[in-house]
């Protein structure tokens, strides 16, 4: 919620419920505090009825998911593969894709994560450790996918190429330690597959604005939800960081006194 505004910003914004993004980008502070200071545009009105918990879960994950899904055109009726469907970006990607009338398969690493992905709206899940993961995905998608939201390009590129239809797009927003991938150029070039890299902090302004508008529209439609929440008081911020680093399944939130 906005507590105060600076010069040039209308006082009618005071008291407005908002969700924010880039709070820590190129600034000495973030949102693990009682207050944060941002340009007015980075405090986006939170639609009525949307909880603060959901608002606090958006930011980078939801904007990243939107860019990965829609950078290469509409996805209605398309088949989407979301790698890591129980993560923050994966969860948002599943819900945004379903909201946009896409068919969604999520890859996961166990039953608990599969349940989270299905709860978010994935019509099917596949354990990416399975020896027949490629065959399962091809069967579930009638022969291949049109969009891939990729969390581990190095580990998954071979699978991605084997399940991609011609003219598909693979959007990679994260990587494993090291970050080096050998790209088989001809295997992408021949079927006109797009290999896209997404870093939300530096994506084009028009894409950022489209993502903000898209996420807000999905919120207004009631299409987005939170992952399971793990809450910590502000004075236990170190434990909150440890939970993130330890790979807790769900979303870590810090409660401000």
Q: Could you please describe the fold and organization of this structure?
A:
The chain is 35% helix and 19% strand. It is of the alpha/beta class. The strands form three sheets. A six-stranded parallel β-sheet has the order 5-4-3-6-7-8, sandwiched between helices. Helix 2 (59-70) packs across helix 3 and helix 2 (59-70) packs across helix 8 (205-220). It is globular, with a radius of gyration of 19 Å. The mean pLDDT is 95.
Task: Describe the SSE topology.
Blueprint: E1 18-20, E2 43-45, H1 52-57, H2 59-70, E3 79-83, H3 88-99, E4 103-108, H4 111-120, E5 124-127, H5 133-140, E6 145-150, H6 153-163, E7 164-172, H7 185-189, E8 194-197, H8 205-220, E9 229-233, H9 237-245, E10 251-255
Parallel strand pairs: 3-4, 3-6, 4-5, 6-7, 7-8, 9-10
Antiparallel strand pairs: 1-2
Helix pairs in contact: 2-3, 2-8
């Amino acid at each position: 919620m906005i507590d105060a505004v600076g010069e040039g910003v209308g006082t009618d914004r005071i008291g407005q419920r908002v969700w924010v993004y880039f709070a820590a980008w190129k600034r000495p502070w973030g949102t693990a505090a009682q207050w944060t200071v941002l340009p007015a545009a980075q405090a986006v009105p939170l639609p009525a009825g949307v909880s603060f918990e959901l608002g606090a879960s958006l930011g980078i994950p939801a904007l990243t998911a939107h860019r990965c899904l829609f950078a290469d055109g509409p996805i209605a009726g398309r088949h989407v593969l979301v790698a890591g469907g129980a993560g923050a970006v994966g969860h948002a990607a599943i819900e945004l894709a379903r909201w946009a009338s896409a068919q969604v398969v999520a890859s996961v690493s166990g039953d608990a994560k599969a349940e989270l992905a299905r709860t978010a709206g994935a019509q099917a899940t596949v354990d990416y450790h399975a020896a027949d993961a490629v065959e399962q995905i091809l069967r579930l998608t009638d022969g291949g996918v049109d969009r891939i939201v990729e969390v581990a390009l190095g580990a998954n590129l071979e699978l991605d190429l084997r399940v991609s239809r011609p003219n598909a797009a693979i959007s990679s927003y994260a990587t494993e330690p090291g970050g080096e991938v050998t790209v088989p150029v001809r295997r992408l070039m021949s079927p006109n597959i797009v290999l896209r890299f997404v870093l939300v902090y530096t994506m084009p302004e028009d894409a950022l604005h489209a993502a903000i508008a898209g996420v807000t529209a999905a919120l207004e439609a009631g299409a987005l939800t939170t992952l399971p929440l793990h809450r910590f008081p502000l004075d236990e911020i170190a434990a909150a960081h440890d939970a993130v680093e330890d790979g807790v399944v769900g979303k870590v939130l810090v409660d401000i006194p």
